[in-house]
Design a protein that fits this description.
65% helix; 40 residues; single chain
Length: 40
């Protein structure tokens, strides 16, 4: 079983998803300060 492959894929998807959400929120609300907000 190549479980390491699935782990790497999960990490890549998680990182890409986090960056996508972060960039999406910054583009959606450029006037606000996202760095001062507390969201997961």
């Amino acid at each position: 079983m190549h479980y390491t492959v699935y782990i790497l894929i999960a990490i890549v998807l998680l990182v890409n998803g986090t960056l996508a959400i972060h960039c999406w929120r910054r583009c959606r609300a450029p006037a606000s300060r996202p760095e001062e907000r507390n969201y997961d």
